[in-house]
Design brief:
This protein is α+β, with helices and mostly antiparallel strands and about 170 residues long. Helices cover about 35% and strands about 30% of the residues. It has five helices and seven strands. A hairpin with a 6-residue loop joins strand 3 and strand 4. Helix 1 packs antiparallel against helix 2 and helix 1 packs across helix 3. The termini are far apart.
């Protein structure tokens, strides 16, 4: 199936929520268990949280759309505490669509959306070796580690990776 990358809109919220539920469980259940993943989904990926990201200024929310279904999504925003840095908050591809280049295509578009920024940063769950490998292939390198990915007392360690953005 062919997917086209486009800007997300509020009409995509239900499909995005379904995609995130599916991909979060596929990605994180093996590390954290289904119950912990449900808590993450409620905190980070409720329909209202998705809507807030879709309409946020200074951010870019993209989807890969076949015309029938959304196969992936990416969300990045300028990082308020670090000048010239963009935070890639989310890049997820539906499990049945992984390996088709959708993640690479979404990233290829999103990295060009912040012309005044110099660095893109992403935080990846330490146990998610597949995602770490994916970001390494895109040119990211590890710059730090953190014990509390996603918030205080989360118990979720992460790798912090960065990549220079094209000028």
């Amino acid at each position: 199936m062919v997917y086209f990358v486009r800007t997300a809109s509020e009409r995509d919220i239900d499909q995005l929520h379904a995609l995130l539920v599916e991909t979060f469980h596929a990605s994180y259940d093996p590390f954290y268990g289904a119950q912990a993943v449900e808590k993450m989904l409620k905190a980070w990926n409720s329909p209202s949280a998705i809507q807030a990201r879709v309409i946020k200024r200074g951010a870019e929310f993209l989807v890969a759309d076949s015309g029938k279904a959304i196969g992936g999504m990416g969300y990045a925003a300028t990082y308020p505490k670090m000048e010239k840095t963009v935070m890639l908050h989310q890049l997820y591809v539906r499990p049945s669509c992984q390996g088709e280049g959708i993640g690479r295509d979404i990233f290829g578009e999103i990295e060009t959306c912040f012309p005044d920024s110099e660095i893109m940063r992403v935080e990846v769950a330490l146990q998610n070796s597949r995602a770490i490998s994916f970001y390494s292939r895109l040119g990211f390198t590890e710059v730090d580690r953190m014990e509390e990915f996603g918030g205080p007392a989360s118990g979720l360690p992460a790798v912090v990776m960065e990549k220079p953005l094209p000028r």
